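Problem statement: downstream parser choked on a complex file, so we are re-checking the raw output for the S-adenosylmethionine run. The parser issue turned out to be on our end (a line-ending mismatch), but while we're here, posting the original submission so the record is complete.
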Amino acid sequence: MKRNPIEVFGEWADLDKDFGMEKNHKNSVQHMLDFVLKDATPFSFIDAGCGNGWVLKEVVKTSNCQKAIGIDGSFKMIQKAKKLHPEFEYFCADLNEWNPEQKVDIVHSMEVFYYLEDPRALIQRIFDYWLKTAGRLIIGLDFYLENQVSHDWPESCGIDTMKLFSENEWSQFFTDAGFHSVKTWRFGKENNWEGTLIVTGLK
Ligand SMILES: C[S@@+](CC[C@H](N)C(=O)[O-])C[C@H]1O[C@@H](n2cnc3c(N)ncnc32)[C@H](O)[C@@H]1O
């Protein structure tokens, strides 16, 4: 029987599988951060679906980040994030509903958006309510149509909400929400693995 992602990732936090995600996602995330931060003047940052908060630690390491916020729906992930990286601000909330009190310059997310019932609605809400003008949204996805080796993940992970879209569809979601300068590319391609699909755009 498949379960919802919040329940499954809460269990993963208990089993320390969040450290495995950190290891597996690290190169793609570093690549995304290098892209985003190369010209960044002092900025504020949200990691949407932050897990144990490890990305926030990477962001502040080498940049002029003024505020770093993590949000995740799993209470256990947020509990762990607060313990491992207490210097950041966290919210335990459903991305389908949450909006920040103040808009930020950069919204980042790794391996989260396809778990949502309606990723388009979240992209639109980020455009409307999360980002300042000229702010950037960047997301990384390993589960997508062209990455065929990922297609059995809903079964192997036992998660019920996973949505399979193509690179062009993700790009169109950004454009439809109002983003400009939308770009997509794949990072870390190797043999049958198509790499992490990166999608980004500016408000
Ligand atoms: C694959 S993990 C990725 C975690 C982290 N971004 C990383 O790269 O290590 C997906 C995360 O998204 C969170 N998540 C999934 N659906 C969510 C939702 N509707 N609202 C908030 N968080 C959600 C899960 O709790 C989980 O921590």
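For whoever reads this later: Residues 5-6, 9, 21-22, 25, 49-51, 72-74, 77, 94-96, 110-112, 115-116 surround S-adenosylmethionine (CB under 6 Å).
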